[in-house]
Amino acid sequence: MRKLHPVALLWLCWLASCTTPTSIGDTSRLVKLVEMKKGPCFGQCPVFDLTVYANGLMSYRGERYTNKMGLYHKRLAKQSLNELKEALRRANLWQYANVYRSDFPDLPAVTITYFEGDKSKTILGKENRPDAVIELENYLTQLADAPGWKLHQAPQYQLPSGAIPNQLSIELREETNPEAWVAKYARYEMKLLKRIWPSQTKIITSYNLKLIDPTQILDIVRQDAEVLSAAYNTR
What we know:
- By secondary structure, this protein is an alpha+beta fold.
- The chain has two domains: 28-153, Mago nashi protein, CATH 3.30.1560.10; 163-234, Alpha-Beta Plaits (2-Layer Sandwich), CATH 3.30.70.80.
- It has helices spanning 6-18, 21-24, 78-91, 131-145, 178-183, 214-222; strands at 32-38, 47-53, 57-64, 70-75, 110-116, 119-125, 150-153, 163-172, 191-195, 202-206, 227-234.
- Strands 6-5-1-2-3-4-7 form a seven-stranded antiparallel β-sheet. It has a four-stranded antiparallel β-sheet with strand order 9-10-8-11.
- β1 and β2 form a beta hairpin.
- α3 (78-91) runs antiparallel to α4 (131-145).
């Protein structure tokens, strides 16, 4: 078998690297197979977008209440990709309505879009969707929750210079107990880091960035009746 010249081999490797979306995160030219978007609820529902491309590449963008915050990529095995295509064929999404109304505003809305050639079918709804659509959602959620994802882009927070993304500097009302107040935000894993001496109601807190965006929690805290002022803690 004839061996390639080293220069030619390097050239082929360079071409391969330039056309491999998993290495550079360029998915703009790829053909989508299916996409699922899970919206927020009144609790701690995961908020994320999952896209599976026809070549088996998957992208996941986590926004809230997920252990994958930011943009992640993963390659789906050929057998798993074929199984997904078969699941999409069985679901036959074309037969269903585009929107299913719900009487439960606290439930997350789920949008599933299937792409076939130059056509696409989108179904939006909550608990009232057909069984086949809910089964497909569960299938895609399993793909999203499976291990093996690689971080491509960390979350981009538009914060002031020097701000610490997961810490807040807060001044509470004099009658407010800091420990009890922090406990109200246990859902965000908020912790009391320290009191700012000599005041007993000026505190520094931390929280879990995987559970809520910095701008969102700052807005929530500022609307709290027991809070006089709140800002990002700074370095």
